[in-house]
Specification:
The protein is of the alpha/beta class and about 240 residues long. Helices cover about 40% and strands about 20% of the residues.
């Protein structure tokens, strides 16, 4: 993660504090967010370093942006995520207003594959588009089940993200989200058919964006999705 003494750190899911303590040795301040009441009690009884603030909270409901602003930049975010929340948390972080200098998570290998997928790959989908638009993502570790206690039934990868100004040139984030979602909800259909009914003027918007209506959503790059959403936005403005 490249944590330096200038960084503050936010850790999601500290567990028993095995990562929290070495992290506190590097970062100027550390906020550890733990949802499990028993682990919070254990951590409070284990004499964490004074620079560590322990929050009993659900990371999906916590105001991560507010915590980052309170700590002051630069701030890194990391954790060994419960895999059932990873998709929702990543969707929130892959946005134009992410306040973190860098963020990295242990993820289920299949989620990492989706994040890093390129257009045309079977794994390429909505999460891939957001990752390519708003971050530079890199897989830095692949780990098998034997390296965890208790052993999970899945393989894992640690992925590090750095922010990218992918929002430049996007006319409407909500419209882009709807467009991408519609394209992948029926990914075997052509764009002409997949987007029909979601908004008006699909054919002319595809033409304006220079995209063949017979292509499928899984073949579009993140920038082609932006061009398509912008064309739909322009049509709505002129209507």
């Amino acid at each position: 993660m490249g944590v330096t003494p200038e960084d503050a750190a936010v850790e999601i899911g500290p567990g028993t504090g095995r990562l929290t303590r070495p992290l506190a040795e590097r970062a100027r301040r550390t906020v550890a967010i733990e949802v499990d009441r028993g682990l919070v009690r254990l951590l409070r009884e284990s004499s964490l370093p004074e620079s560590v603030e322990l929050l009993h909270a659900d990371a999906l409901k916590a105001d991560l942006g507010g915590i980052a602003r309170r700590l002051g930049p630069p701030v890194v975010l990391l954790g060994n995520l419960p895999y059932q929340i990873s998709g929702r948390l990543l969707a929130a972080l892959l946005s134009p207003n992410n306040p973190f200098r860098r963020w990295g998570f242990m993820l289920q290998r299949e989620v990492a594959d989706r994040l890093l997928a390129e257009p045309g790959c079977p794994e390429y989908g909505t999460l891939s588009v957001w990752a390519r638009l708003f971050s530079h993502a890199q897989r830095v570790l692949d780990l098998g089940a034997a390296e965890f206690e208790p052993r999970p039934r899945v393989r894992s990868s640690f992925v590090v993200f750095e922010p990218r100004s992918g929002a430049d040139g996007i006319e409407s984030i909500p419209l882009l989200r709807r467009t991408v979602r519609a394209a992948f909800q029926q990914r075997r259909k052509t764009l002409r058919r997949a987007l029909r009914g979601t908004t008006s003027g699909v054919e002319s918007a595809l033409d304006r964006a220079g995209i063949d209506p017979l292509r499928r959503g899984e073949t579009l790059s993140e920038l082609e999705f932006v061009a398509l959403a912008n064309a739909l936005h322009a049509q709505a403005d002129s209507a």
